[in-house]
């Protein structure tokens, strides 16, 4: 990997494009280096993972509305939309939109946490949609997805967005544009312009994940993917972009991030170096914010030791700065303690999540968020006894790059009314690559079958899994079928402009 220093330049300094971050990203995308076998396997895993959570969410409101919007934009050859019959095709940017919402709706797919947060699986819907529309085979699709993951992970390692209250999808627009550029074997110049356009139009604030969290949380990455497809389309037609988008005097670093004096270091593969960043990412066993994954596992373990949870006086979760301030009591969001809060808000309340996981000895993507579950009196009582606090050591481990030190969990202290104390800790989720039960292909397949059960027919599940697991050998016609249909899928009949 090569570390690239990125800073603001005055217009009079005339920074050559070859020294601009967007150009260097585009060079990675246009590098024809082969994809390693273990990366190919993980790309397949994540395609299955995305389809799993899309199946589970396909009948929910946000994915349904996004799908209805997409249906008003039919195109040939086009791309399929999760849930619709495979013969129904829509324009690729709208397929990216609808499928992106379905994938993100339950907050149940993969994650990468570094200086910035990310869900790199959000790259798959736009890249796959373009491949299906453009008649691209499996090997090129794998390269495109591996590239999207590489760029998003590398940007997340080097540039923090959340400290400026910028949503993490600002890294997704450029990464998806780069992945599409790699997929289509576009010249560096074209991908360079698309990356800049994509960043420019996908920068938004983090209010979508603050306070009363709405369904826009699922739409935000889908919008970034849709914008990436459109940016590549414009760039292929010869349209340019604001440049230099990162380093310009009125650019991203100078006015959105830390200002003209700031310095960032972004690692990128060198020429001929394989794109392996997808192997640094990890998926979710539980449908909740990633920082909750390990704590759900710990709650199950600790809850089994306490027969009468009404005797608990207080629970303190000692954890990282991010967990405390984003999904803990450090966020100072009263909505996180409200039994009538939205599913999206409860998903970002570790107090609620820990209480339910303790009581139920598990976590379910629907039942655990049901209004009647959230409103259970004994749950509300336990929930409101839970507080979080930042522990500098857990914050340090959260940001560590050492696989043996990295931690997304915490230490939990349970104080009982009789004065006794129960204490335990966990570093990473059981399903994490360094956890007690790391996810492998069989787990991804099981996750798909579990979440698709009762929604996608067994025959359709088999057909999809057979295609996905043979991705490297698929021709364009088979890639075009890489979706699933749901029989009897109903729509709301809602009307907008389209």
Automatic annotation (TrEMBL):
Residues of the signal peptide: none
Occurrences of domain MmgE/PrpD N-terminal (ranges): 19-263
Pfam families per UniProt: MmgE_PrpD_C, MmgE_PrpD_N
Lineage top rank: taxon: Bacteria
InterPro entries: MmgE/PrpD_sf (IPR036148), MmgE/PrpD_sf_1 (IPR042183), MmgE/PrpD_sf_2 (IPR042188), MmgE_PrpD (IPR005656), MmgE_PrpD_C (IPR045337), MmgE_PrpD_N (IPR045336)
Xref: Gene3D superfamilies: 2-methylcitrate dehydratase PrpD
Chain intervals for the UniProt region annotation (Disordered): 59-79
Positions of the MmgE/PrpD C-terminal domain: 286-472
Family, per entry: Belongs to the PrpD family.
Protein name: MmgE/PrpD family protein
